[in-house]
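Run log, item B.
One chain of 192 residues. Sequence copied directly from the ordering sheet:
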Amino acid sequence: MWKQGLSAPVFSLALQRNTGGYIAFGGLPPAGTVGSFATTALQEFNGLAGSAFTGQSFYTITPDALIFPGAATRQTNQFIIDSGTTLNHLPTNTARAINSLFSPRATQNEGVWIVACNARAPQFGVRIGGQAFLINPVDMIFKDEATGLCVSAIQDGGAAPGPFVLGDQFLNNVVAVFDVGAAQMRFATHSY
């Protein structure tokens, strides 16, 4: 569309919790936002050399920080913004720390963090472009309808360099603008 002059080199995404969502080409989706948009640079993923996880095949950013009790004030890991991934995949130690904050605690079973469906979720968010984007507690627990099990929205993404992923459980809470023309991403809090 962009090459044919039908659209600006930008698309945006607003997932609607449990009901699909919107994608818009050349502008913003018909979804409400709270506050202003935060901006950050799109980056080439500096992942594992020679693997499928290198280069510009992903929409990659480096958030300022992850927000949870006991978190460092800054972080330097890259994260892929991916609507094709349901959960968030964070560094091992970070995933372990966040999952220990559920009440009752999440437990790891065959590599997956399982949580009680009625657990109290910890505060978690991502700081991007100086703005905090907190994940609604509803999005911190994902129920697998096929098995009836509930899993934490925070899963183990392994050691650096990852890839680490901010998936749907993060994207439910923001309107994300993929501005390829300006080589940047913009995020605003999604209002429901």
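Observations after the first pass:
- The CA atoms of residues 106 and 115 lie 4 Å apart.
- The longest helix spans residues 92-99.
Flagged for discussion on Thursday.
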